[in-house]
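Action item from last meeting closed. Structure (148 res):
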């Protein structure tokens, strides 16, 4: 899904550049992208291929770049010790994959597994990979509070 989004962003930006030079006709789609650049709004043509986001264009692009960097590091250096959970396009697929890995490793049925979360109270970035499960960051609590 990220590849589709990146292709959409790249192609529309390239075409806007060509349209400004007069090499291609400025379609309504390209005009929306050009207007988004001028008004700092994320174009609908990008949102159609994107993860949900309400951010203005400048923040959206920075967020997209951070997500792509996370995955590029994963590809380059193998799986990270900690995973940016909110950086995934479809978080449920990652979580299901974690359940599948645990079920295979321990030879149990995936339907018998439940999630168990433990909040780590530490300000360090020096974690070690757990024997089972995964470490995640980027969780948000909305409309609630954390009670120790």
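Sequence:
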């Amino acid at each position: 899904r990220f590849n589709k989004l990146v292709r959409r962003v790249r192609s529309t930006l390239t075409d806007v550049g060509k349209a400004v030079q007069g090499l291609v006709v400025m379609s309504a789609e390209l005009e929306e992208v050009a207007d988004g650049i001028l008004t700092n709004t994320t174009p609908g043509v990008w949102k159609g291929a994107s993860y949900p986001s309400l951010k203005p264009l400048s923040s959206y692009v920075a967020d997209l770049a951070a997500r792509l960097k996370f995955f590029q590091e994963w590809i380059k250096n193998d799986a990270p010790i900690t995973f940016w959970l909110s950086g995934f396009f479809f978080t449920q697929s990652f979580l299901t994959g974690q359940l599948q890995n645990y079920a295979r490793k321990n030879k149990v049925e995936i339907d018998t597994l439940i999630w168990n979360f433990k909040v780590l109270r530490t300000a360090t970035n020096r974690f070690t990979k757990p024997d089972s499960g995964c470490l995640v960051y980027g969780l948000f609590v909305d409309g609630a509070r954390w009670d120790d």
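Note appended to the action item: Helices lie at 2-20, 28-39, 44-47, 57-77, 91-106.
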